[in-house]
Amino acid sequence: MSIPLPAPRRSGPRRLQDASLLEAPPLLLGRLRGLSSQSNLTWLACVPIALAGLGVFNLSAHAAELPELTPAFLANNMFLLICAALVIFMNAGFAMVEAGMCRQKNAVNILAKNLIVFALAVTAYWFIGYKIMYNADWVIPGWFKFGGLFFDPTVTPEMVTEGKLVPSVDFLFQAAFAGTAATIVSGLVAERIKFGEFVIFSLVLVGVLYPISGSWQWNVGEGWLNKLGFIDFAGSTVVHSFGAWAGLIGAMLLGPRIGKFTNGKPQAIPGHNLAIATLGCLILWLGWYGFNPGSWLSMAPEVPYIAVTTTLGAAGGGISATLLSQFTGGKPDLTMTINGILAGLVGVTAGCDGFSMPAAWVVGFIAGVLVVFSVALVDKLKIDDPVGAFSVHGTCGIWATLAVGLFNTDKGLLTGHGFNQLGVQIVGVLAFAIFAIVSSWIVWSIIGAIFGGIRVTEKEEVEGLDIGEHGMEAYPDFVSTSN
Q1: CA–CA distance, 316 with 365 (Å, rounded to integer)
Q2: What is the pTM of this model?
């Protein structure tokens, strides 16, 4: 019996399900509409990451034969999993604070940025970032690692018997931190940046820039700053200041929003929903109990102590910022109370494990004062920071790192241990600032050159990014009487 031969195909497979891995992408793209628009081309720049993952990654996630799970193993991994979830939930807080402190015509854009940026940040960190920052060989000892793509999730018997973290839990916790750095950028460039260009910058930041600088400190005994003795327990500089510097460069390149400065004087552009902003502040405060206590990386007696110093820092910052706004403006300013609490949280993040409780409150109190003056200074420099993100995360991130050299119980100047630690802290602050400024300026400039700038048109900005960038409104049933 003869077997009929299949009819020859003239131009590859007609159905997507019949296509090979190499044939599928062009077939899929050929069926898409509107690829000529710049925004769609920008989004397509993110596609190679996903396709590369499908094509080159075939790593087994199965655990080896494991012994009986020990209480220490279960407690440590469950603890860090909960902390990772709390840090991930901080994205909701950032979204609420940023959206509430900005105008309603840009609310959809802000919420979309905060939502998608974490999804893309996790993808970039999983794809390459984690293996630049951890668990890889040094290409330049102490300065640059590279271990290929993806991480090995295999659980070994030694991890169980010694109560160590499994790779997947450790990755999830570290990815949550990486996403936070990108989210900080969002606040500084709010209300005038193109959506797609922001997404691409976030991918580069989390996939490459943040892991490089983070490896200097959080590889114990290996990174050059760690070996120097630099202390940043939970990331006041590694995460917060780094993200703030990257966002500040973006804000400077973008220029101020229309109407922010009149005759050289800053004009207030009130947020549209301070109830949402307040809720966001409380969500962030809650999430910080994953950020700081989780950075101990195990369930230990030190964890509740760190939680208390974190709380005291937030309390001190909220009180001082409220009082100062009362003295300078005649009435307590809710936005300053919000930023004061966040400033206090950032302020204790670098040294929450090594501060006494009174010192933690004082550090937070000073951070709350600094954030008020910093917001005014940034305005005087004619830099438009819609939500005060640089003042909270940059200025107070620097203060937090220096405060370790002053108040650390075992190494601080004010606790009788000399200037040495303060000097090391200054070196760390400068190293991260220089790297973040230079690398971010290069990336922002390249993105702008490729896509014809990073700022929306004047018409889009006046109309609102919700309509111009997303074609929808956050409050379609309400008519705004003002911008």
Answers
A1: 4
A2: 0.84
